[in-house]
Amino acid sequence: MSGDLSTKNDSGIPSGCGPLLPLGNANTKPMRQQIFEHVRAAGRATRTDVIRTLGISAGSATALTADLINAGLLREVDSVPRETGRGRPAVALEVIPETNFVIGIKLSDEAHSAVLTDFAGDAVATASLQTPAHPKSLDEILTEVGALMQDVLAAAQKNPNNIAAVGIGMSGIVDHQAGTVPWSPLLATRNSDFAAKFEARFSVPLHLDNDANMLTLAELWFGAGRAKSDFAVVTIEQGVGMGLVIDNRLYRGARGMGLELGHTKVQLDGALCRCGQRGCLEAYLADYALAREAATALHQQANDHHSPNALLTALFTQAKAGNEAAQTIFRRAGRYLSVGLANVVQLFDPALIIISGERMQYDYLYADEVLAEMHRLTLNDGRSACTVETHAWGDLVWARGATALALSAVTDQAVAAIS
Amino acid sequence: MSGDLSTKNDSGIPSGCGPLLPLGNANTKPMRQQIFEHVRAAGRATRTDVIRTLGISAGSATALTADLINAGLLREVDSVPRETGRGRPAVALEVIPETNFVIGIKLSDEAHSAVLTDFAGDAVATASLQTPAHPKSLDEILTEVGALMQDVLAAAQKNPNNIAAVGIGMSGIVDHQAGTVPWSPLLATRNSDFAAKFEARFSVPLHLDNDANMLTLAELWFGAGRAKSDFAVVTIEQGVGMGLVIDNRLYRGARGMGLELGHTKVQLDGALCRCGQRGCLEAYLADYALAREAATALHQQANDHHSPNALLTALFTQAKAGNEAAQTIFRRAGRYLSVGLANVVQLFDPALIIISGERMQYDYLYADEVLAEMHRLTLNDGRSACTVETHAWGDLVWARGATALALSAVTDQAVAAIS
DNA sequence: AAATTAAATTCAGGTATCGAATTAAAAAGC
DNA sequence: GCTTTTTAATTCGATACCTGAATTTAATTT
Question: Considering chain A, what is the average pLDDT of its residues?
Answer without folding.
Answer: 85
